[in-house]
Amino acid sequence: MKIFLDTANLESIKKFNDMGLLDGITTNPSLLSKEGGNPKNAMEEITKIIKGDVSLEVVSTEYSGMIEEGKRLREYGDNVVVKVPMTPDGLKACKSLSSEGIPVNVTLIFSSNQALLAAKSGAKYVSPFIGRLDDIGQNGMHLIKEIKEIFSNYNFGTQILVASIRHPLHVIDAAKIGADVVTLPPAVLEKMLHHPLTTIGLENFLKDWEKLKSGNPDIKI
Ligand code: G3P
Q: Which domains, and CATH codes, for the chain?
């Protein structure tokens, strides 16, 4: 399973990329707005730091504007995936851009029917938002299971990019289903790194090493 970071925060991107954890990045207008400053600089920098796919989203809501913005976004790098909303114009733009070899991520997916249509339009990724479904009392992970089953039935090349992830259990469940990608807020990835027994175990190893050293001050690893 690929891990993307769902952020435009450069510090977090560098931190987790240095650990070798990141296969890509997803951004959206809200995430860019959260960071402030000029979004162009952030988008340029992210596409340079990350070798894998970087989703950058259009803000036009009609077809020709999406195509124009999509092509401008691609100028940031060959690793840019154009993110379009799940609307009739979004699907039309997905079809055109994909036919020209420009990869597209169809976002704001909340049903299996929407995922099926986005795949038919040639999307490289579909982004179902599971946390937002959980928030309104619908089971987001059931949606991932259903999309996985449908895509497997027809061997669609479209990848399931699980978005709106709220906690590490979402990641485990997505991995058990066999989702292609999870895109994680930095706080969720941070939580996945830690376990209290790891912290206690390391503290004890270091205490015992100090004990050993007290009898042999010159000892070194
Ligand atoms: O890529 C954006 C998606 O992950 C949304 O997350 O937390 O705003 O529902 P959230």
A: 2-194 (3.20.20.70)
